Amino acid sequence: MAEIYVDVRGETCPVPLVEMRKAVRKAQPGDVIEITGNNAASKKEIPMAADALSLAVISTEEQDGTWTIKIKK
Amino acid sequence: MADKTTIIVQSGDMDKLYSALIVSNGSLAMGMEVSLYFTFWGLLRLKKGGLEKGPLSKMHFLGLGKKMMLGRMKKNNVASLERLMADFKELGGKIIACEMTMDIMGLKRSDLIEDIIDDYGAVGTYIQEARQSAITLFI
């Protein structure tokens, strides 16, 4: 079970979603993808995309506008 | 209805191509299939070196408006059309070029960015794609 890190700090729509999707495509079942960014809309939309892809969101954290979302494939 | 987005890209304007590619990449990121059907002015953006050449649909001002807009977009870290197109292809997006437009504009396949074009077709090809799509747009 690998952990894959995706850093999209400073990136805006639609790049955070796209980078999340690229990482999910490359991941193996069971891998955890950790995405960090600071685009406010993406914090809401990455869980929406995970839901659309039938993937579980393990955790969401936020500090000073920077969020980290963990998704399990 | 299948989880698919089909867009007719009729406009060659820069801002409208942004709209088309952002909706497309969002659709791909959320697990949908996407087909972009490039026709008329939109097809000119598929000419070699043509992707970033479109004018702004409003306030172009002989290129000055576009330059200002690109400056503001860069400041806000908006991805380039080249980058959006590369992401679109990496996530499996499909591009169809309108053959009738190619005839009208006198464009050969070798004039176009052939390595990103998946198919060449006419209205029937579009309908086949669109009739199975939950999202269809004309941009």
From TrEMBL, chain B:
<dbReference type="Pfam" id="PF13686">
    <property type="entry name" value="DrsE_2"/>
</dbReference>
<protein>
    <submittedName>
        <fullName>DsrE/DsrF/DrsH-like family protein</fullName>
    </submittedName>
</protein>
<dbReference type="InterPro" id="IPR027396">
    <property type="entry name" value="DsrEFH-like"/>
</dbReference>
<feature type="transmembrane region" description="Helical">
    <location>
        <begin position="20"/>
        <end position="44"/>
    </location>
</feature>
<keyword id="KW-1133">Transmembrane helix</keyword>
<keyword id="KW-0812">Transmembrane</keyword>
<keyword id="KW-0472">Membrane</keyword>
<dbReference type="InterPro" id="IPR032836">
    <property type="entry name" value="DsrE2-like"/>
</dbReference>
